[in-house]
Design a protein that fits this description.
Elements (H helix, E strand, L loop, with lengths): L1 H34 L5 H20 L6 H28 L5 H26 L2 H29 L4 H10 L1 H8 L4 H43 L1
Helix pairs in contact: 1-2, 1-3, 1-5, 2-8, 3-4, 3-5, 4-5, 4-8, 5-8
């Protein structure tokens, strides 16, 4: 009975926290329009669309996922989210002149976690499908964490010297010069919102591929061990 209760608690808490994160993400997106009125409606709509899609998955799919998949997926997702958040905060704390290598390390580490989540769940439950599900859930959770941290950090440091140095390291000023836009603030806001759309859209797809690879490899090694 105690185990069942713990499973039910996990199945209730994780979807609820995920939905709170999605709602916070939507609020942050709309704040972007408030802070930078020149931000295009299309950029706002794209970010809202993917967040609403996440919300629907959180409402209709997450509660039906078995806790044996949801629990490890949440753990791996939180670790990946911590990596995302740490990289964002360290940029402002350490102010590197070029953060391209940081991005490679950041996403490389996160992709390894997605892969390991697929391998772990596939190994524990002898199911490639469960492994892929765990990797995708981990990606969705960490992506929402990334969105929240990247937008909050941007808003808090708007107009500061620190943010100017971070933008130089990321190449924002060069990108703005090539964009043909006349409003730098609108360019940056739309750039962030575009990143939100593509990050939340593509990361689960990459995670699914990594989950398939990890689960398949684990299954192959399991067969070798039997022989």
């Amino acid at each position: 009975m105690m185990i069942s209760g713990n499973k039910n608690t996990i199945s209730n808490i994780v979807p609820s926290i995920f939905l709170i994160g999605v709602l916070l993400g939507l609020i942050l997106v709309f704040l972007g329009r408030l802070f930078v009125p020149a931000t295009s409606f299309l950029s706002i709509a794209g970010a809202c669309f993917i967040l609403i899609a996440y919300g629907l998955i959180g409402v209709f799919v997450f509660p039906h996922i078995q806790s044996k998949v949801l629990t490890p997926a949440t753990i791996f997702g939180l670790f990946a989210g911590i990596i995302f958040a740490s990289e964002i905060l360290l940029e402002y704390a350490l102010l590197p002149k070029d953060n391209s290598s940081w991005g490679i390390i950041e996403f490389g580490s996160v992709f390894v976690l997605y892969f390991l989540s697929g391998v772990w769940v596939a190994h524990r439950h002898k199911s490639i499908k469960n492994g892929v599900s765990a990797a995708v859930i981990a990606a969705m959770l960490s992506s929402v964490i990334w969105l929240i941290f990247v937008l909050i950090t941007y808003y808090l440091f708007r107009g500061t010297t620190q943010q100017e140095l971070v933008f130089k390291a990321e190449g924002n000023f060069q990108d703005f010069a090539r964009s043909g836009m006349s409003d730098f603030n609108a360019f940056v806001m739309e750039d962030f919102l575009g990143a939100c759309f593509f990050h939340l859209s593509l990361t689960p797809i990459v995670a699914a591929i990594l989950g398939v690879i990890g689960g398949t490899l684990e299954k192959g090694f399991a067969k070798l061990r039997k022989h």
